[in-house]
Amino acid sequence: MRIDPTVTAAAVLPLVGGPANVVSVAHCMTRLRLGLADPSRVDEEALRSLPGVLGLVVDDGSYQVVLGPGAVTQVTSALEALLAAPTGGAPPDAARGELAGELAARGDLLREERRRRNATPLKSALRRLANVFVPLIPALIGCGIVAGVNGLLVNAGLLPWLTPALAAVASGFMALIAVFVGLNTAREFGGTPVLGGAVAAIVVYPGVAKLTVFGVTLSPGQGGVLGALAAALLATRVEKWCRGRVPDALDVLLTPTLTVLVAGLATLYGLMWAAGAVSTAIGTAANWLLTTTGPVAGLVLGGLFLPLVMLGLHQALIPIHATLIEQQGYTVLLPILAMAGAGQVGACLAVYVRLRHDTSLRTTIRSALPAGLLGVGEPLIYGVSLPLGRPFLTACAGGAAGGAFVGFFAMLGDRVGATAIGPSGWALFPLLAGNHGWGSLLAVYTGGLVTGYAVGFTATYLFGVPDRPRPPA
Prior knowledge:
By secondary structure, this protein is of the alpha+beta class. The protein folds into three domains: 5-119, Gyrase A, domain 2 (2-Layer Sandwich); 133-289, no CATH class; 329-464, no CATH class. 67% of the residues lie in helices and 7% in strands. It has 18 helices and eight strands. It has helices at residues 5-15, 44-48, 71-84, 93-118, 121-133, 137-156, 163-175, 177-188, 193-201, 224-243, 248-311, 318-328, 333-337, 339-354, 359-373, 378-388, 390-412, 438-464, and strands at residues 22-27, 31-36, 55-59, 62-66, 212-213, 216-217, 416-418, 432-434. The radius of gyration is 24 Å and the shape is globular.
């Protein structure tokens, strides 16, 4: 359903407490993320019922309105415009400032209480790691699709005059992804982004091939995104150390110089070698896991992915995906993890069939199912399976079955991967890649989806629907 972003933003704003209650506005691939001074002012029931709103997630005090890909970007821009524009009939500046201050104080207390209850060092680290890599996903998707189209043209022998240009368009970003990782890392951890990017650029500089470290000649790109992440982190630490010690008159000269010099030399003579060893180990482990224990690995990964998402631990997989894409051209893990969404779709279809008299729940499923088929699972998770309880578990069973299917064929030698991270479900088809032809990729991935749908549906139909279901929250 296409929505008017301005109308949706105007409807969302009063339901989250009005402009004075909004502290920050951001978005990811599918969610509008709002930092609120006083979360208790949100009218959750009315917010969930808005046309175009697919779900609502509360994570560590942050209100996340699920709008779906595309729509979320437009609504975020419209909401930011509303917040920036003066509003007629607004209270005087002094009164508005007093209200905002009061709300901010109350919100600080609420957020601090939630942070003490829920925040852990692991979740905090994973959240910051995601903030480094999530902004790169649109470029990964765009370049991945171009690479897939180019591969089809090359294999078919079509348009030979165009394929070199498409290869350049698809490969340019991946050749310099280390620089973007460095920029985002420095920005996230409080450093100067361009200094983080400058140090990370050393990882992909062709001239590193003239250096030998620990008896091994370095190669451009060695260490990949992990090396860039480590280099930018070190650069940020060096920069902060310098800022507190270098005289103000010399800061503009000495701090950038020392940051680039110290972090750059450490990158060349240690971090690239170490990160390269870790990257190689990740690729080797992923290949060994699927070729040796394919069905078991697929069963575990596909079955546990939904709980990992619920706990926020799936963010730890982002740099692993990026490393595999950089090394092999695709990540073999994402198609297996995407089977969790297939199990979710099958489970919710079973709920739809079984609970014929629950009009409200069936309406929720009908509106959320198209997004679920395209890999946006939050509406089905938070609107259907998780509130009901048992369907969430049977959805995991469907994901495990689909993952085992894909893992079984990987063990036989038919590896299915994705050239980008982010999409799943049917949206992953344009990004499929592997070690065999397009027909094999389609057959294995489609077979996995069908298996996930079927097992998720059957398990839920037989065991997953409670006798007296609770309505969705």
